[in-house]
Design brief:
Blueprint: H1 4-7, H2 11-40, H3 42-67, H4 75-83, E1 93-100, E2 103-110, H5 112-119, H6 128-142, E3 146-153, E4 164-170
Antiparallel strand pairs: 1-2, 2-4, 3-4
Helix pairs in contact: 2-3, 3-6
Length: about 170
C-alpha cells in the first residue's frame, strides 16, 4: 500500500482526514439504508441493515483488536479501549461507566444518525434490533466472555437523556 500521500500530511490534517472518513462511512451507511427504505420500506431496510452489521461489526472489532494489540480476552477494559476506536467514535458523544468490576455501561449521548434524521424531518431510525447485533457481536469479538444487554434504544427508550444505552457484563 502506497502511503506517500498520507506521509506528507501533518498530524492535524490526518485527524481531519479521519473525521472526513468517519463522516463518509456514516453517510454511505445512511445512503444505502435510505435507498432501501424509500423503495421497499423500513422493514426491508432493517433486514438488510441487520445482515450488514452482523458481518461488519465483527470485521471492525477484529481490526481494532489487532491494531490495539489486545490479548485474546482483554476483559471490559479492552472493550472500553476498542469502543473508543470505532469508526464513528470521534463523531458521536458517548460515556462509559463501571457500576462494578464486572459491568460496563456504554451510553451514546448524541448520535449522528438520529440527529441527521431529525434534522431532515425523518422518523427516528428504529436501531435497537440492529444495535443488539452490532454491540453484542462487537463485544463478543473483543472478548468471548462479554455479554451485552440493551438498556435503552429507539424505539424502546427507557432513558430519554440519551440516544441509547448498553450494558456489557463480563462472565468469569
Amino acid at each position: 500500500m502506497d502511503n506517500e500521500v498520507l506521509n506528507e500530511l501533518s498530524k492535524q490534517q490526518l485527524i481531519e482526514l479521519v473525521e472526513i472518513y468517519s463522516k463518509n462511512l456514516i453517510a454511505m451507511d445512511g445512503v444505502w439504508f435510505q435507498s432501501i427504505e424509500k423503495k421497499d420500506g423500513m422493514d426491508a431496510a432493517m433486514l438488510h441493515d441487520a445482515a450488514a452489521w452482523e458481518r461488519f461489526t465483527v470485521i471492525e472489532a477484529r481490526r481494532i483488536k489487532q491494531f490495539l494489540d489486545l490479548p485474546d480476552r482483554p476483559g471490559l477494559e479492552g472493550l472500553e479501549k476498542a469502543l473508543k476506536y470505532r469508526f464513528y467514535a470521534n463523531l458521536n458523544e458517548s460515556d462509559i461507566v463501571y457500576p462494578d468490576e464486572y459491568t460496563l455501561i456504554y451510553t451514546m449521548k448524541k448520535c449522528r444518525v438520529q440527529t441527521a434524521r431529525e434534522r431532515k424531518g425523518m422518523p427516528f431510525h428504529p436501531c435497537k434490533p440492529v444495535g443488539v447485533i452490532e454491540y453484542r457481536d462487537f463485544a463478543k469479538t473483543i472478548d468471548d466472555r462479554i455479554t451485552c444487554r440493551c438498556l435503552s434504544c429507539y424505539p424502546e427508550v427507557t432513558d430519554p437523556s440519551c440516544c441509547c444505552k448498553w450494558e456489557f457484563s463480563l462472565k468469569v
